[in-house]
Amino acid sequence: MYTLYWSPASANMTPHAMLEDIGVPYELIKVDTSKGEQRSPDYLKINPHARVPTLVYDGGKILYETTAIALFLAERHREAGLAPKTDSADRPLFLQWMAYLTNTLQIALMHWWHPEHVIDGADRQAELKTKAEQQAAGMFRFLDQHLAKSGPYLCGQTFYVCDYYAVMLAQWTEFMATPAHANPHVNKLIRLVMQRPGYARMLKAEGIEQPV
Length: 212
Ligand SMILES: N[C@@H](CCC(=O)N[C@@H](CS)C(=O)NCC(=O)O)C(=O)O
Fold this sequence. Notes:
This protein is of the alpha+beta class. Helices cover 52% and strands 8% of the residues. The chain has two domains: 2-82, Glutaredoxin (3-Layer(aba) Sandwich); 91-202, Glutathione S-transferase Yfyf (Class Pi), Chain A, domain 2 (Up-down Bundle). It contains eight helices and four strands, in the order βαβαββαααααα. Helix 1 runs parallel beside helix 3, helix 4 runs antiparallel to helix 5 (122-150) and helix 4 packs parallel to helix 6 (161-171). It is globular. The model has no long low-confidence stretch (mean pLDDT 97). Glutathione (GSH) binds at residues 10-11, 33, 38, 50-52, 65-66, 102, 110, 114. Glutathione is lined by residues 10-11, 33, 38, 50-52, 65-66, 102, 110, 114.
């Protein structure tokens, strides 16, 4: 039994869709970040960084960081085929994309959504948002070029959880001047991922009525 602490349309989208795909029993506990619930004393005991998602497994063990949760679930439930096996030719590229998405693209998006985490002052925050938006748009253009050559999935012909991660990050660009889905090959990846029943069930459960 797993417990996933989540907030609508947040980084939990990836592990949430994975739990649907895997088909194991799990419960969801909502921590609404728009209401600041991630800073409640009870949640801070579970995740001292005041972020979602957090996964609780094996009767009380705690894991946070989306990539760690995603790799943990994929490796624990290999039969779901959400990650290439360690000796697969796709494995190095898969690891590259997981790291790139979480360490590089997600950071640019977080700077756009939460400039106040990085810098004080409305003017400087606005400058940071502008820069972050340019960076994120450039990174999605780069992913688009990669997908044009080597898609339709990030690792080629096979879907892995890095594709959930990329589509989740694309969702976060919906209010930007150049949303990720404006890139044709990223758009194709989004459409492919949307067809996956687990992803669709996650969107419904999180109340995301207008996915990108
Ligand atoms: N590196 C963390 C970042 C998680 C993160 O920043 N989550 C956001 C929601 S997408 C959050 O909890 N924000 C709350 C806040 O900024 O106070 C991960 O990937 O799990």
